[in-house]
Amino acid sequence: MHFRDNFGDVAQLLFVESDDALLKAMVHFWDPIYRCFTFNEVDMVPTIEQYSALLHYDFRDLLKI
Prior knowledge:
Elements: H1 2-7, H2 20-29, E1 30-31, E2 36-39, E3 42-44, H3 48-55
Antiparallel strand pairs: 1-2, 2-3
């Protein structure tokens, strides 16, 4: 219960269906030094809403991801 209070119900992410092509593209364009996606010379950081749409997961409490 203490873990769930601090971090929310992240265990539900284990049951999210993943899109292999999307994951490959995300890994290809991820820049670990800047911790964002880089397309040519443009940096892009997804928002919580965009992660929610990509993962098909409803982040109800935006402070607990």
